[in-house]
Predict the 3D structure of the following.
Amino acid sequence: MTGEVAVLGAGMHPWGKWGRSFVEYGTVAARAALADAGLDWRDVGSVVGADTVRGGYPGYVAGATFARALGWQGARVTSVYAACASGAQAVGTARAQILAGLADVVLVVGADSAPKGFFRPAGGDRADDPDWLRFRVLGATNPTYFGLYARRRMAVHGDTPEDFARVKVKNSAMGALNPYARYRKRVTAEEVAASAVVADPLRLLDICATSDGGAALVLSSMDFARRHGVAEPVRIRAVSTVTPRYPNTVLDLPDIATDSSVAVPPPDETFRASIARAAYEEAGVGPEDLSFAEVYDLSTALELQWYEDLGLCGEGEAAKLLRDGVTALGGRIPVNSSGGLASFGEAVPAQAIAQVCELVRQLRGEATDRQVEGARVGVSANQGLFGHGSAVIAVR
Amino acid sequence: MVAGWFTGEGEGFRLLGTRCSACASVFFPREDVFCRNPGCPGGELREVPLSRRGRVWSYTDGRYRPPSPYVSDPELPWEPYALIAVELAEERLVVLGQAVPGVTVADLAVGMEVEVVPGVLNEDAETVWTTWQWRPTGVAA
């Protein structure tokens, strides 16, 4: 495959509420990724940062911030913002530079210091911003939307709150085996049921927390990898960063309404499904080829939605897949072997990169107690606010 | 805080959107600059009232106080309200809104018919901010 790039290194800063600067988390993750790759920072020809607004600087910054912290060495720099898909766009940008011959080795970094409690829009009266409007006019937090999707699944597919809790039980069991996860304790169905309702029908333990964290990757051309003595690296074969197609008829965070399908019939597939399909087409693989998947479980119910959008099962069959143990460790296709957001929490610009770190660990067979046996092909999937798609397929 | 999203009083209360004169696409909240249909050459966007009634697509509530810019009195205990996403059959779109006070998630079901009514979002000494709210059609005024 001519479109492939090698993953030489992966590194993370543990997730949690550490109360330090995002620069520190990103730099720790970057140094870990470089050490994993066996490369010096001065070998890096390009650095791509996934942006954060929360760093005390009035603007979205990342790439050069990490380059400065690591020590200016003249590398090409890029900073990208795509909300939760920022990390995937950073990987996509790095890959494009490598394939275009602009750089042999690219460092990708994302890190954040998240606020406590609900994410909220930036300040000021900003009636031209849909994210501001949904808070001001409706008081609609992110969990509001998770609750709407969960209730819809219950009505249409017959999912139950007990099914949702099973996702948490599964992911916490795997997260307990991951030293980088914020929550390292197994959670029971009874504990989920006993936690407070946040947005009916979802409870506190159905919804991911906000966290601090950082993740980084060192990517290179296949030629460089071979010259560097890595004959069989984990390879990235696809990066999907598609936008939705009009009319988008699923009420998407942070919108107050969907598009109308009066003039144009809705597309055959939802936005999330199109994110996965674009990745499959680019990689030349299908869901039947997958060994495991990392999906964006902002809520337990949303993980079930991803099973269907990734084509792991038919529409409405996700809860059965879960109940049958197919997506648990030891099942046919484990989902969120890292522990997922359920165990990590959300550190927006780092998250899609952290998903790829897990793909790398699994494909190298380095995932210790949470190793998926014989892992050959992994997909990560995520969706960024305002219409940013995100999926990565990695192979060994 | 946003002009031109609704109009009228009582039975005459309506959400306002815009319709593209070239392709007939409807937009809510109103789109006044460009038609967003990628296959449309772009037409004039004209204000249109939306259907008064629709069916519940889904619903939820917020058991914790939302952060600003939502306005609520921190001195008072938080009273959750329901949020309803409503499918408008004629316009073929889904609109999210608060439920009228007193309607909780226990009163709602997917597919139930609701209608749009005026409501109060918040008020201070000088201003009352009105908004739209959804009310099950089976509920008396």
In short: Chain A has a mean pLDDT of 95.
